[in-house]
């Protein structure tokens, strides 16, 4: 089983912080997992970003995951990919990238989780937990009960799949979420929109690790 960090920071297109600046701040705060999420640039621009981010991650011993753009595999120092399409064929994707690359997928239902596990995904981002403007979508919100039920269902089926809660998570939500048995959480807005990025990251880190 691959290493999956409990606190994952997802970069976004922001007017006040570039993806590279977000990565630098997160790594300075202690981040061990960066998910580079940029759906607005050309391949050339993406690779320029990714190469700069990969250098920072390498300096700090941080895992770099890229959202989608799996065609860039092998063109930069990328440790894995997160695929947002809940219907993506992970059997085909695994054949494409090989066994060493980390592959994560998005899920909104227990059925999504079971399929990801059966097709060899290394983890699942299960959400959205709450309302979020960072990644608008039409999926129903999950809430605490959905995480408890999802984890229980997977255990009944003897399925081991690290579940990462995602979507509108605030610091006050972390304790209840972790008590459901999930592996960890992914955060964006609650960190990058905070008055102090590094302090906010470290608050989440402490909450997740307790």
TrEMBL record:
<dbReference type="InterPro" id="IPR036206">
    <property type="entry name" value="ThiamineP_synth_sf"/>
</dbReference>
<dbReference type="GO" id="GO:0009228">
    <property type="term" value="P:thiamine biosynthetic process"/>
</dbReference>
<dbReference type="Pfam" id="PF02581">
    <property type="entry name" value="TMP-TENI"/>
</dbReference>
<dbReference type="GO" id="GO:0005737">
    <property type="term" value="C:cytoplasm"/>
</dbReference>
<dbReference type="InterPro" id="IPR022998">
    <property type="entry name" value="ThiamineP_synth_TenI"/>
</dbReference>
<dbReference type="InterPro" id="IPR013785">
    <property type="entry name" value="Aldolase_TIM"/>
</dbReference>
<comment type="pathway">
    <text>Cofactor biosynthesis; thiamine diphosphate biosynthesis.</text>
</comment>
<dbReference type="GO" id="GO:0004789">
    <property type="term" value="F:thiamine-phosphate diphosphorylase activity"/>
</dbReference>
<protein>
    <submittedName>
        <fullName>Thiamine phosphate synthase</fullName>
    </submittedName>
</protein>
<keyword id="KW-0784">Thiamine biosynthesis</keyword>
<feature type="domain" description="Thiamine phosphate synthase/TenI">
    <location>
        <begin position="17"/>
        <end position="191"/>
    </location>
</feature>
């Amino acid at each position: 089983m691959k290493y999956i960090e409990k606190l994952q920071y997802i970069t976004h297109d922001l007017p006040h912080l570039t993806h590279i600046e977000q990565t630098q701040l997160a790594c300075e705060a202690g981040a061990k997992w960066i998910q580079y999420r940029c759906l607005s640039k050309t391949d050339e621009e993406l690779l320029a970003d990714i190469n700069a981010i990969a250098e920072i991650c390498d300096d700090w011993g941080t895992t770099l995951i890229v959202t989608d753009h799996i065609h860039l595999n092998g063109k930069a120092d990328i440790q894995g990919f997160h695929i947002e399409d809940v219907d993506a064929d992970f059997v085909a994707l695994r054949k494409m990238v090989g066994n060493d690359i980390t592959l994560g997928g998005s899920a909104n239902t227990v059925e999504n989780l079971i399929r990801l596990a059966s097709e060899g995904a290394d983890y699942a981002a299960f959400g959205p937990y709450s309302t979020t403007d960072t990644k608008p979508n039409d999926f129903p919100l999950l809430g605490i009960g959905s995480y408890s039920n999802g984890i229980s269902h997977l255990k009944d089926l003897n399925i081991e799949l690290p579940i990462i809660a995602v979507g509108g998570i605030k610091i006050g939500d972390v304790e209840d979420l972790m008590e459901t048995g999930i592996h960890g959480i992914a955060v964006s807005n609650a960190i990058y929109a905070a008055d102090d990025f590094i302090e906010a990251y470290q608050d989440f880190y402490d909450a997740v690790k307790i």
